Structure formats: structure tokens, C-alpha cells
Amino acid sequence: MVQIRTAAWRAAYAGLIDADVLAGLPEVASERYVRRLADRPDLELTLVAEKGPYVIGFAVFTWDYTEATEEEAGPGTPGEVRMLYVHPDHWSRGAGRALMREGERWLAEQGLWPVRVWELEGNEISRRFYTRYGFVPDGERKTELISGAELPCARLALPKDHRVED
């Protein structure tokens, strides 16, 4: 999964994140990253997309950490697309949409609504994907510190009347 995330970052963030930072991304999982995926709380779902014997994408869905602690999270807490990465060789072929659809369904079953996602401003690939799915900017912004650089992010949310696709 780290290889997928690294390839997706390098393709999607070129020109947005310093080239040296992108070149220095890990190709293999750090112990911390593996532990984070293995230690997830009850209100978190990790999905993978496969093509044949290969994993080509993955996504993590959870509650919005800015709205509630793990103990407080539950029905009525907003949900969040924490990560959604598909290897660039498989973009625009339905894997991301399938991950999003299953994740949205799971969030709705948990009562984690509305569904939100943060994206790096200027990431047109991400914006195109999420707006095609139905997300709209909700006006919230923040900065993320990535390798010493403060980068602007915008939050998108699914409208209240959005329904999971079949």
C-alpha cells in the first residue's frame, strides 16, 4: 500500500509539493505506518481494490477526528475519507469509485454523516474525482505541514441528500 500511496503522491502532487520531498517518499512501509493500519479503532474501515492478484488501491474511512474523540464518536458524528489512493496506472478505471462507494455505504451504516474529505488545494486530479462523485466544497480550509512546508487544504463534503450508488 505504501508503493501505491507513493506513486499516487508523485503523480498527483507534482508541482504542488517540492520535488525533493516527493522523490524522498518511502517505497516500503515504515513500522509506524504498518502499526497504524493494524491498530485501527472500531469506527475505521480499510478497503483495498484488487486487479487479479495485485492490490491497485486502498482507502481508509473513519469519523472526523476534529469533531469527536474515539470515545465520543458514533452515530451523528461526521464521517471522513481519511485516505483514498489508487496507483496512477489504474486511474479512471473505476477502482477509486468502487472504494468510495463501499466506504460511503459503510459510513452511512455507522451513522457517520455527513462524509467529508480534505484535499490539497490545486490538486485538480483529486478535485475532479471527488466532484464527479458528488462532493462539494463546504468552505472550510486549513494548512497542513508537509516536510516543513505549510500547504493549503480545502474540505469537501457530500450533500445531505446524496445517496450511495448501487
Pick out the low-confidence regions: none
For the CA atoms, what is the radius of gyration?
A: 16 Å
Strand-pairing-aware structural class: alpha+beta
Shape designation: globular
> CATH homologous superfamily?
Gcn5-related N-acetyltransferase (GNAT)
State the end-to-end distance.
Answer: 26 Å
The first-level CATH class name: Alpha Beta
Strand order of the largest sheet: 1-2-3-4-6-5
The whole-number mean of residue pLDDT values reads 87
What is the beta-strand fraction?
25-35%
What's the tally of helices?
5
Biggest β-sheet: count, sense, barrel? 6 strands, mixed
The tally of structural domains comes to 1
What is the helical fraction, as a range of percent?
25-40%
Domain N-acetyltransferase: 2-165
Organism: Glycomyces niveus
Keywords: Acyltransferase, Transferase
Pfam family, one: Acetyltransf_1
Provide structural commentary.
The chain is α+β, with helices and mostly antiparallel strands. It has five helices and six strands, in the order αααβββαβαββ. Helix content is 30%, strand content 31%. It has a six-stranded mixed β-sheet. A hairpin with a 2-residue loop joins strand 5 and strand 6 (149-157). The chain has one domain (2-157): Gcn5-related N-acetyltransferase (GNAT) (Aminopeptidase). The radius of gyration is 16 Å and the shape is globular. The protein has helices at residues 2-12, 19-23, 31-38, 95-110, 124-133, and strands at residues 44-51, 54-63, 79-86, 115-120, 136-146, 149-157. This is GNAT family N-acetyltransferase. Residues 2-165 form the N-acetyltransferase domain. InterPro entries: Acyl_CoA_acyltransferase, GNAT_dom, YpeA/RimI_acetyltransf. It comes from Glycomyces niveus.
